[in-house]
Amino acid sequence: MTVIQRFTDHLAEPRTIGIVGGLGPYAGYDLVRKIFRWTKAGVDQDHLPLMLHSFPGWIPERPAFLLGETKENPGEDIGGIMAQLAENGARVIGMPCNTAHSPRILNVALERLYATGLDVTFVSIIESAVKYMRALCPSGGRIGLMGTVATLHTRLYQDALEKAGLDPVLPDEDECALVQRAISDPAFGVKAFSDPVTSHARQILLDTARRLVEVKQVDAILLGCTEIPVAVTESRLWDTPVVDATSVLARELIRASCPERLKESPDFSSEKETL
Prior knowledge:
The protein is of the alpha/beta class. It has a five-stranded mixed β-sheet. Keywords: Isomerase.
């Protein structure tokens, strides 16, 4: 028996993780990277089986649908990708896009997934992040929320945070518009410039976070868009915890696949506090 076999034979067989990518592409890549980061592995064979299906051209704009600018529901194509993942062996599925978790999109997608008749678990980034925030602030608290205009407009996080006994605090309306530009502006946004992120996009996001801390006096900040952690990697800003929903999702996917492989560290950043 080899060393590798001795290390892994006592562990339960992991369930294959499937990731709906392309929402945007770097958000999918970032989730994969964080799954690798939080997996307890000594050799290649200890890492979990994982599939990333990134077909960005198949999926219509999520914000445009939610804001009434188009009638084409992205959930149909997202569900098709989920079904593909399931049919190829995925048994745990995650989607690194907060906006696409709107019930108007997600319910349609899950209907297509479950129509396969396969035993598949979908792990919600919204539910995972709110559960973590509740553990972080067990006595309640003010949670600064940063996300796309569509995510905030549909109250995906606000309703869930309030139900968990937490107080969601949003940037001012003009700041929300700036955050949206930092995410999606073709001249400097994270979607257009992900590697590296432009200093302009990062500065907008940091300035918004700073005002949430200094002006609105939040107890923690939740990065509720999977593009934002590509630019803001700190785990604390101005002595305030910053929670990356992508890292929370990565850990929950590992837990659903094979909990024995999940690292115990709760620190969701590879960087130290710098501001």
